[in-house]
Amino acid sequence: MIQITIHVRIEMIRLLMVWSKFLKQIFPACINVSLGSVVSLLVVGLFVMKDASPQAPPETDKELFNYELHGELIEDPYHWLEGSQAPEVEGDDQLLERRISDWTDAQNAFTRSRLDDLSGRETLESELSSLLSLDSYGIPRVVGDWFFYTLRRGDQAQPILYVQKGETGEPRELLNVNELDDSGLLALAWYRPSPDGELVAFGTYQAGDEQTTAFILKTSTGEWLDDKIDGRVGAVDWLDDGDHFLVRRLSIQDNPYSGQITLHRLGREPSEDPVLFEQYTEGDLATTWGPYPIVSRDGRWLVIVYFTGTDSNDLWFYDLDEWRENGVLVRQDLLVGEDARIMGFIEGQTFYAETTLDASNKRVVAFDLDSDDPSSYREVIPSRQDAVITGISSAPGQIVVEYLANAYSSIEVFNRAGEYLMPIELPDIGSASMLTNPKSEKAWFRFESFAEPESIYQVNLADGFTKLWRRPEPAIDTSDLIVKQVFFSSIDGTQVPMFLIHHKDIQMDGENPTVLYGYGGFDISLTPNFMTTWLPWLTRGGVYAVANLRGGGEYGANWHRAGMLENKQNVFDDFYSAAEWLFDNGYTRSERLGIRGGSNGGLLTGTAITQRPELFSAAIVAVPLLDMLRYQYFLMARYWVPEYGSAEIAEQFDYIRAYSPYHNIRSGIKYPATLLTAGENDTRVHPLHARKMAAALQAASTSDLEEEPILLWIDRSAGHGQGKPLAQRVEESADQVAFMAWQLGLR
Fold first, then answer.
1. Active-site residue, from 599, 617, 660, 717
2. Listed residue (745, 733, 743) closest to 127, CA to CA
3. Is the domain of 125 the same as that of 226?
4. Is 720 in the active site?
């Protein structure tokens, strides 16, 4: 029998990493998978050798590290897992990162040993591969004579950008990122055709890092221009001359708070582009996200949106014609210092905006930028009590308004005076988003529901007539699934909606394996979406529940604010009340209930298992925030202080300390089986949160860690989740569904 200790395995892994790098240098065309994937597979192989499969997670060193906050001594024995980015770290950074890397390899290997051999895993992966291989179309953009759209077919890793002459022309590949990087890790972040469609600006990033670089190509030939702009570049805004566009980027590559807006001219070095706006850095704790540009198509007016919170922003504007004449940028106020959100578009000299100013559910107002008093505004479309405005867009002589009522979409059309014209008929109760063209009555919208996969429709805004353009056909029959919306009372009596999706024949005997999903933050609404990943769960008799918790945007700004800062506990209480409603109504019981959430939703599920571990048997805690006393020190997290607060501020410390998941783990508690995930290249949420939480839970839980384990998976070739190739998405989905099936008893 071969017995290999963890330390020996780690040394072997290190040698294999060196050998893999050597092979990549000599035979780069022959290595078609990422180094991280190779190493992960090798690690798994080493750990699952006969009689060497780990039966318990690797032990994690505890080290003495304490700090004081507002008179309380905080003990943090796993502080070293924060890595060299931690403010207090001194010494050999490389040695520390190597130590963390070794620890991660061991944790990943243990996770793979538990998940890869689960009963039915191969069948599940095959089924998910088929489901996730459905053709996926992007909303078309029609510009000049050109018709653009993205499409990912079958087993392609990433979508391809296609172009054709008009709607009936022959499509051809314009940009295939799969051919630029055969690892499948290069993602197309966005594309924007020039006003005549003859050029296309686009952005790409690698392995989920979202550090987007912008390029330009010619539509007719596919030839790339020499222009290249680095720095997490957002989708650009072309001017009508087709020679200039506005760029939002970082002025300092490794400083996520260094936002700026520049005016790029084709052929000019980006370093020579004039800076129209620079993000001010004072008062980091009070600002978020920085500047976003809105430019008129004639290039005269520039409106700057500067976020001061997750649901508030200041609004300024510039007359760029004056700047071109005299070289001086004069900033003028539109709406400054108000605790409100405002966004919109420019037509002629008028800025039309949706805003929460004096309207929690939003209304539409208009500013005359060329008037003597541009900061005064008139109301165009009033707020409604029964629906929230989620977006407005421009069409010839019209304003198209997207609404959300009880967490599902409707779309209505108004003229520029605010007079109601007509509704846009949607296929069903679901989620819709519209893309209009200010110069055309033809528009497009994306629609999906729990029963219909993401489909693209064309609509004529002259008469409201819609027709289907593209809809994929899933391999699984969904006709036996039913969807219902229920309302439950939270602890304080607030009525909260929840969607339930399940097979029509389930019995209300409290024995149904159920996954409860939530988010509850940042004004983000959970609306109906086709359950591609969880169809195997549903067709096998599982229940999936989506709770529209406070903190989201389902019922306007007041709903969001009822779940942020000092009100954050409302989000968690809503979640627990959703679970108890499922128990009381015969859907499931705690032994059959799992919870799932990612990012801010990972904070939700991480908090849930520490505050109410008895309610749940399994949890997925994906790309999470978990150490809420220190989150603001890492990556771009100071942007989220207006949402959560900061433990640095005495008045906010108490309520953050009360729910911070990492700091509320207690020894001797039977914690639910938990799968924590993170991305090594995440530029939003640092993987330290998942690392530290996994180590602390593994040490504290009294559960049988072989049957109810605490698992950690750090994806070496991923970020926060964006841009994952098909193979990674299949593996991630199989991990989550198989984990829940194992823990909740789904056959």
1. 599
2. 733
3. no
4. yes
